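S2.1 Query sequence (dolichyl-phosphate beta-D-mannosyltransferase)
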Amino acid sequence: MNKPSDATLVIIPTYNELENLPLIVGRVRKAAPDVDVLIVDDNSPDGTGDKADELAAADPQVTVLHREGKGGLCGAYAAGFAWGLDLGFTVLCEMDADGSHSPEQLHLLLDEIDRGADLVIGSRYIDGGKVVNWPKKRWLLSKGGNTYISLALGAGLSDMTAGYRAYRRETLEAIDLDELSNAGYIFQVELAWRVVSEGFNVREVPITFVEREIGESKLDGSFVKDSLVQVTTWGFKHRLTQLTELSRELKKLVAHEWKTSQRHKRNH
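Output structure tokens follow.
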């Protein structure tokens, strides 16, 4: 019997990951030989795109999608999702090129997809999850930020900024990817929240997140402030919508009870 994960695409966005790319692709192909890999390169000036072409030429299960300029992580994933959906993949995964997401743990995400999940997030902050080689301050900032985000949005998830994910194609097809925020990594939060809001089955599995050893992080310090401001705005609008809907339902209930009482009086 076929499983959704039988047709899995792992999307790896790259920008200046010349040294890391062969390592991560090699690990993916060894840990999950049946999956296909799509490298989405944003015209890296260090030659990452050329290296990606070499890897693809040597392996029919590796493909490269070249984009002009540095278009951002959200745009890279959106392009990768569109490519994978067009080719009929039933599961599409996000994975960083820097080795922070262990390909050896990919099966944890895919197993949950096969058990019925619509989106599986590799989480650092549930039981069994952990972070390696982060300063305590950075861990506290990330953990606290994720706690705030989940509470503000009422999402019930522990790691909404996580970038190690597996989606069923039906989940992505239900979301308008063109509407996602293209600022930093906040789109990960927005995408997870939209999936939750649509009523899909979202699960988290514990992963070990390892800080990159080669190259520099693309994340700047403004991300935390900008993200929390944006999430607070979304959360306020979400609560306001809930209150409006609750008020509407209460009015309907009161009107119904009043009509019922009037009918009761007329009958007696």
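The mean pLDDT is 86. The chain has eight helices and nine strands.
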